[in-house]
Automatic annotation (TrEMBL):
GO terms for biological process: lipid catabolic process; lipid metabolic process. The lineage of its organism: Eukaryota, Metazoa, Ecdysozoa, Nematoda, Chromadorea. InterPro entries: AB_hydrolase_fold, AB_hydrolase_lipase, Lipase_euk. This is Lipase. Belongs to the AB hydrolase superfamily. Lipase family. GO terms for molecular function: lipase activity. It holds the Pfam family Abhydro_lipase. The gene is WBGene00114132.
Amino acid sequence: MVEGPKKGGINGFRMQLLALSLVLVTGLAQDVEESMTTSEVISNWGYPVETYDIITTDGYILNMLRIPHGQASTNNSSCHRPPLLMLHGLMGDASEFVINPPESSPGMILADAGFDIFMLNVRGTYYSQRHVNLTKDDREYWKFSTDDIVKYDLPAAIDKSLELNGAKALYIVGHSQGTLISFMLLADLPEYNRKVRAMFELAPVGNIRYIRVFGRFLYRIVVSVKGILDFYKVHLGAHEFGLHSPRLLGGAARFVCGPLFNYEASYSFFFVLAPSVKFVFMSMFQLCRDIIFIGAGPPSRTFNFSRVPLYLSNFFVSTSTWNILQYGQTLLHNAVYHFDHSPTENLRRYGQIAAPPYNYSNIDTDVYLFWSRNDWTTTPYEIEKWIIPHMRPVVIKNTFEIPEYNHLDFVLATDCREKVFSKIIAVVREKELDACLL
Ligand SMILES: *[C@@H]1O[C@H](CO)[C@@H](O)[C@H](O)[C@H]1NC(C)=O
Ligand SMILES: *[C@@H]1O[C@H](CO)[C@@H](O)[C@H](O)[C@H]1NC(C)=O
Ligand SMILES: *[C@@H]1O[C@H](CO)[C@@H](O)[C@H](O)[C@H]1NC(C)=O
Ligand SMILES: *[C@@H]1O[C@H](CO)[C@@H](O)[C@H](O)[C@H]1NC(C)=O
Ligand SMILES: *[C@@H]1O[C@H](CO)[C@@H](O)[C@H](O)[C@H]1NC(C)=O
């Protein structure tokens, strides 16, 4: 057997060196939040936070955070706090729900509204890279696909949340990959329909077929190198995809784009001297914006550009290459299937040579979809032509179009409380008359 590259390889030492020089260049201007853990960020804003290690039945140790109540919580024995599980997107983690000040962070908005908040970090992400028998440097650790997140991580997180809260069923708020895995869960393990009272799906992922611009380009790559990918999957196993280097990513964003986001303020002196300088800065600003949003779509007017370094330092969180490959397979199949291993492995796992599809008709809980025409990743076509037709019509209780939002604005835009979460709170208030919801 060929040994894999040593610990981290290039993403180890050289990355740190690069990060260090970038940090020096940008004048050590790191935002304090960039160096905090997610639970430190939550308590820094004055919220209670609890941390749990959940062990899945296949031995992965997952980190789950809980915000048991909001800042101004009344201790009222005549009403209860409904449990709500938040599921993050691909290449992100639970930090995406608490990355803004409390009035625009989904996790804190919902805790203040009266929910008992649980935020899972799925396997492979930085805070969940542990296993009872393996380390993250073992190739075996990374041999998981989206199926395994669905089959092991979600049941463990749901059961633990219900145990801690005491309720019989909870609510799910999913964003991007979080929506995909929650659909897959209820399709594959229908007994969990009873444990989920409703799902609020932000930027819901279906078959990813209608992805635009950058995504289309990736699609063409996937199609043209399918043979290589199949060889990789069967003969080379799985690897870590992503990195944890807030200093590098945040530093790079600050160094390359940071001053440009405020170019009017930073460079106005030069603009007076030479108007053409302004044109150069405007073009560079456009380029930065375009690179950042090439996958997600144009940002809404309430996107906070000053926080881009912080957002980027929490992005590109690791997952397994097999999870990414399963997205590629979904694109090629034009439908959500189990991970397609080699025919022999499929036979062993599924009892048949071809990987079986997920049956979305099994979804039997209330579903609320939040979508936008500006979302280039999960476009309106995806929702109209795939998600809605694949579910039984009776489960889709409502759809909300959020004008102007791109794929990330659902959790990052500073007006997400008004545009998204007030609607969720209103729906739950009607379902649970005895809940303490503000
Ligand atoms: C961990 O290792 C022990 C001892 O070899 C074994 O019994 C157990 O099944 C392993 N657990 C998992 C989840 O692989
Ligand atoms: C509510 O009050 C009970 C009993 O007085 C106490 O045990 C519990 O910790 C309080 N909870 C909160 C959230 O303050
Ligand atoms: C406790 O909750 C009940 C039901 O929601 C409400 O009527 C009451 O005013 C609350 N009491 C306090 C002290 O907040
Ligand atoms: C935007 O980000 C800056 C820098 O982090 C912060 O000071 C400000 O409060 C944010 N604005 C809003 C509306 O959240
Ligand atoms: C999907 O599930 C529904 C009921 O949940 C069943 O009627 C249907 O036959 C299933 N479809 C397939 C292709 O298995």
